[in-house]
Amino acid sequence: MTTGTETGMADEITITIDGVDVTTTPDKMVIQAASDAGIYIPYLCYYPGMKPFGACRMCVVTAEAPDREGNYRPLPGSPASCTTPVMPGMRVTTNSDDIVELRRGIMDCSYRSIRTAA
Ligand code: FES
Q1: Looking at residues 81-101, what average pLDDT do you find?
Q2: Model's pTM, two decimal places?
Q3: Which of 52, 64, 107, 118 is the most exposed place for a label (fewest CB within 10 A)?
């Protein structure tokens, strides 16, 4: 029997996004794992296949991951899903009221800065 590591392929891990179990590989960012599973996370500066930039913050999520003892700890703040790597057992929420409101504020701020610059 060969493992993913022996064949050069990354081993699969499971994370939970909005309560759905998603199987992915540890080399992915959260937004990639979500997209592969058909879960949409809004974004502006992310482009599949390019190095994540992490500038617009539209892809923010809330996430928690288990520590070594298996206790879940929240990731600090509201991480950008395009620059946050998946972790085994991670739980991600993409569409809570708080996250939607945060994105709305980010979009409003971006819009105002564009209007001011124009
Ligand atoms: S899509 Fe712009 S920060 Fe993630």
Answers
A1: 97
A2: 0.87
A3: 118
Centre of ligand 1 from the C-alpha of residue 60, in Å = 7
Q: How confident is the model at residue 75 (pLDDT cuts 50, 70, 90)?
A: very high
31: helix, coil or strand? helix
- Quick check: CB of 29 below 6 Å from ligand 1? no
What is the domain class of 13-117 according to CATH? alpha beta
Distance 81 CA to ligand 1 centre (A): 7
- Once rounded to an integer, what is the mean pLDDT over residues 61-82? 96
Pairing state of beta strands 91-93 and 13-17? parallel
What residues does each domain of the chain span?
13-117
Contact between residue 38 and residue 32 where contact means Cβ atoms under 8 Å apart? no
